[in-house]
Amino acid sequence: MPYSGDVTSGGPPAVRELDRLIITKLSVGPMDNNAYLLRCRSTGEQLLIDAANEAPRLLELIGEDGLRTVVTTHQHMDHWVGLAEVVARTGARALVHADDAAGLPIETQTLVDGDTVPVGDCTLEVIHIKGHTPGSVALLYRDPEGTPHLFTGDSLFPGGVGNTDQDPERFATLIDDVEQKLFDRLPDETWFYPGHGRDSTLGAERPQLPEWRARGW
Predict the structure, then answer these.
(1) Among 95, 154, 188, 202, which has the minimal tally of Cβ within 10 Å of its Cβ?
(2) Is 163 exposed, middle or buried (0-12, 13-18, 19+ CB in 10 A)?
């Protein structure tokens, strides 16, 4: 079945098979958070983006091959409810941007803009996106055989940027970072995977940037 990215809380995962990486998307918890399990095809190593909720379901998804790393995209609680249990059960290292580390329930290793995180023979680039939280990150996989794949947390969704609590300064910071660090650097075919809801491409959202900036959210 072709990958659509459509998942519902309690429902089955959606699986996207790239040449070197397998991406599995699962919706968990009462806020329909997306968790993404990435698996390197050549080594079998796995990385989880946002142990958001329902740790038993996440552990079932991870399976017997184990988990090397968990990256938390930002400090909001709905993105780390399952983190402590997943780390305790798998021994995975937990990563988060330094500016959001204090908001997590366990000790973590910290990330900064420009860091790289391995998934076996594949690599994720860390992009620091300020505004939704001080230490939000997006994670970029540049597929050597295809289009870029971008995991945006709650910084970018189809139809707009993340919530900034109607704070004009936070919104300006977020929209600037999203435009300059994502849209200005990456091609239209870049597929992005947000922290909630459906996926999109940068090309589909790019024409709306002036509207988002004008409306202020």
Answers:
(1) 188
(2) middle
Which residue type sits at 10?
Answer: G
Q: What is the sign, positive or negative, of the torsion defined by CA atoms of 77, 81, 85, 86?
A: negative
| CB of 13 closer than 8 Å to CB of 24 | yes
- Token digits for 2? 């072709």
Separation CA 102–CA 177 (nearest Å): 22
Q: How far, in Å, CA of 41 to CA of 204, rounded?
A: 29
Separation between Cα atoms, residue 91 and residue 191, nearest integer Å:
30
Contact 53, 33 (CB under 8 A): yes
Decide: pTM greater than 0.90: yes
Neighbour tally for 94: CB within 10 Å: 23
Q: What is the pLDDT of residue 154?
A: 98
